[in-house]
């Protein structure tokens, strides 16, 4: 979620996508993006060693933490099937191996199946669909966290797939799909892209409108959005 988090029932914020399940109050404090990756993984050939410690929160669904050894090259394809249509994703394992490893693990364990996307923002500079919390409140997660994979030069044009967080190194299960060029701080790990057909699907979701219930912008979609399943490969 984004900077200046408001702890609304979902603990989602305005120009900041924050997943409050990873920190008690969901606060997302501003800091130098270049210093936000606190635990550097160690490379081992074509794999990398990642750390997925428990975050102290009850998982929204029981899942195992990912394997520590993550592939660190190439891309991975995935399809997010929703009640509005399919959204094709390409995940960047070469640049963000620990993030992709987590997303793939959760998808393969069915963590994202039959889950809502509780927030959409549709305005200039802030066009995102946020998903990844089975509780639909914005406060649920997988029970573990992991470090940011940031360069400090991140931008968020339409077609970007990025992690939501509650501050530095608090990534979990929640993510957001950018369907309008968005002006966000470089604080959210970009781990993939969305295909053109997928952007059309999200445009159709946005066209239904939202209830503007989040004081920071956007709100719950007027028509429920459900991830039916996420398939990898």
UniProtKB/TrEMBL annotation:
Biased composition (Low complexity): 27-44
Signal peptide: 1-21
Limits of the PPIase cyclophilin-type domain: 85-232
Enzyme class name: isomerase
CDD domains, sorted: cyclophilin (cd00317)
Task performed by this protein: PPIases accelerate the folding of proteins. It catalyzes the cis-trans isomerization of proline imidic peptide bonds in oligopeptides.
Known EC number: 5.2.1.8
Protein keywords: Isomerase, Rotamase, Signal
Region: Disordered, residue numbers: 23-71, 209-233
InterPro entries in the record: Cyclophilin-like_dom_sf, Cyclophilin-type_PPIase_dom, Cyclophilin_A-like
Name by which UniProt lists this protein: Peptidyl-prolyl cis-trans isomerase
């Amino acid at each position: 979620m984004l900077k200046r988090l408001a702890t609304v029932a979902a603990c989602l914020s305005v120009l900041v996508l924050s997943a409050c399940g990873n920190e008690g109050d969901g606060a997302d404090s501003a800091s130098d993006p270049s210093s936000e990756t606190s635990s550097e993984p160690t490379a081992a050939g074509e794999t990398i060693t990642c750390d997925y410690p428990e975050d102290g929160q009850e998982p929204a669904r029981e899942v195992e933490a990912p394997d520590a050894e993550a592939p660190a090259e190439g891309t991975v394809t995935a399809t997010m099937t929703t009640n509005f249509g399919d959204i094709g994703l390409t995940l960047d394992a070469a640049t963000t191996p620990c993030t992709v490893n987590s997303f793939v693990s959760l998808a393969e364990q069915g963590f994202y199946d039959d889950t809502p996307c509780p927030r959409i923002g549709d305005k200039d500079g802030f066009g995102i669909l946020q998903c990844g919390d089975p509780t639909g409140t914005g406060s649920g997660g997988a029970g573990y966290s992991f470090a940011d994979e940031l360069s400090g030069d991140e931008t968020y044009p339409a077609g970007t797939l990025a992690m939501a967080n509650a501050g530095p190194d608090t990534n979990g299960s929640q993510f957001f799909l950018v369907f309008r060029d968005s002006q966000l701080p470089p604080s959210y790990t970009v781990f993939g892209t969305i295909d053109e057909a997928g952007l059309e699907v999200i445009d159709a979701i946005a066209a239904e409108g939202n209830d503007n219930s989040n004081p920071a912008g956007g709100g719950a979609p007027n028509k429920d959005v459900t991830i039916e399943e996420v398939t990898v490969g």
